[in-house]
Amino acid sequence: MAPLRYFLALAALARPQVFRWGKIVMAIRLAIIDGHTLTRYGLRELIARHPDIEIVAECVSAADAPAMLAEAQPQVVTVEVVLPDGDGLQLARELRDRQAGLGIVILTTRHEDNVLFRALETGVSAFVAKTAPVEEILAAIRHAAVAASSFTASGLAVALARRHTAQDRLALSPREGQVLCLLRDGLSIPAIALEMFISHSTAKTYVARLYDKLGAANRAQALMTAMHYGLIDYGQETPSPVPLPRPSNRAASFGALARGSRLDPSLRRPAATAG
């Protein structure tokens, strides 16, 4: 009976191999998670021309990804940011938490700065736009295979420079930063006033000044701009930069009532008043 190592050697030879620097190197095992049929087809056609990479599995949704990856055991996975059933960056975070050595490449049509920075914070290996040159896409996959824990993205330095310039221009005071976080949490102007122990008119002034600084006409625009420039993050806790006095029982009761109506859609652009 043939020894076990004989059958293992045969199985290894059945996998695609490539000669590099005089040695036989196993091809990179790649999986694709993307809801776009054309993207998956294009990747298959591209990878077929490069023997050092092989596609071992693909799926279209976040729900199917765990089972696919468990069965195929890829070294690298490409993930689209927008999936039919969820957020590709959230999926990437879950994959990173489960498999520290898995190479994760965000290959996406969304190449805005804030999406790039979210990818960086998620812990992926590379971020590439689908409009990038072919060699850049291949380089990202190869990088992820050998350096899963390091991040690469063309244009990262330029995006960082843009963010720093914008943050300097949009520098917020501690109070303005606190107001911004309370807006993100859904508080109305009366609730902000109670939360910060300031008058209603002062709260309106803070909000109006914040909208002016961000070039926004309403809460949604202000939050979108703030997230774009990194002034607030997803899941960021509301800071308390200024120590606040302990409220009386009456103030606490009013505060609780105000927080109970956090989704009050009253935040159109307020008129600035002295406060």
Describe the model:
48% of the residues lie in helices and 14% in strands. It has 275 residues and is an alpha/beta fold. The strands form three sheets. The chain has a five-stranded parallel β-sheet, sandwiched between helices. A two-stranded antiparallel ribbon has the order 1-2. Strand 3, helix 2 and strand 4 form a beta-alpha-beta unit. The longest helix has 15 residues. It is elongated and about 70 Å long.
The share of residues in extended strands comes to: 5-15%
* CATH hierarchy class name of the largest domain: Alpha Beta
Query: Architecture of the largest domain, CATH level 2?
Result: 3-Layer(aba) Sandwich
CATH fold topology of the largest domain:
Rossmann fold
Structural class by SSE content: alpha/beta
The CATH superfamily of the largest domain appears as: Response regulator
Question: Based on DSSP secondary structure assignment, what is the total number of beta strands?
Answer: 9
Low-confidence stretches: 4-15, 236-267
Q: What's the helix-strand series? A: HEEEHEHEEEHEHEHHHHHHH
* Distance separating the two termini: 91 Å
Total discrete domains: 2
Rg over C-alpha atoms, rounded to the nearest angstrom = 25 Å
SS field, number of helical segments: 12
Shape: elongated
Strand order of the largest sheet: 4-3-5-8-9
Main beta sheet: strand number and arrangement? Answer: 5 strands, parallel
Mean pLDDT, rounded to whole units? 80
Level of helix content? 40-55%
How would the blueprint of this fold be written?
Layout (H helix, E strand, L loop, with lengths): L3 H11 L2 E4 L2 E4 L1 E6 L3 H11 L5 E7 L5 H8 L3 E4 L2 E2 L2 E2 H11 L4 E6 L4 H10 L3 E4 L4 H13 L9 H14 L4 H11 L4 H8 L3 H15 L4 H10 L20 H11 L16
